[in-house]
Model the fold of this input.
Amino acid sequence: MGKKLVMAQKRGETRALCLGVAMVMCAVITYYILGTTMLPLYQKSVWTQESLCRLIETNIRDQEELEGKKVPQYPCLWVNVSAVGKWAVLYHTEETRDRNQQCSYIPGSLDNYQMALADVEKVRAKFHERQVFYCFSTTQENETSVLYQRLYGPQALLASLFWPTFLLTGGLLIIAMVKINRSLSILAAQK
Done:
């Protein structure tokens, strides 16, 4: 009976140890992936200065002029603000600025034109409700654009590091508990 109990205990310890090591390895892999993808974007972000923006005007643009002809396009919002003592164009995020510099806000779903237009009008109404809000600007002197929201800010970095840290801590705790259990069982067997 005693030998079966010891064998079962060893199998359970081995499984728990494997679980702990697997959790630690997953955390290390996740840290590596985040370190090569998210961290460089955070470090390269120039939108670090938080400023107070005042709304100047908003326009809904749904046509683009190409070669003198107006071509239908998805609806988007154009927002002009006063920030850091000068006129600037407000962009929703870094990606909005990269996708289309003629739009401050691009709706998420562009499949249905009417739904996209309703989304843009809702965002426009929110801007008109709050005339003064916080935005992010760069320290570059000649930059005439600001961001409403940073994609790669400190909150995003901390949120993405939460689960790997939780996994690493849990794995290390499991490994520590197995090692403590082994040493206590050896001490108990010696007495």
Summary: Residues 49-155 form one domain. The mean pLDDT is 82.
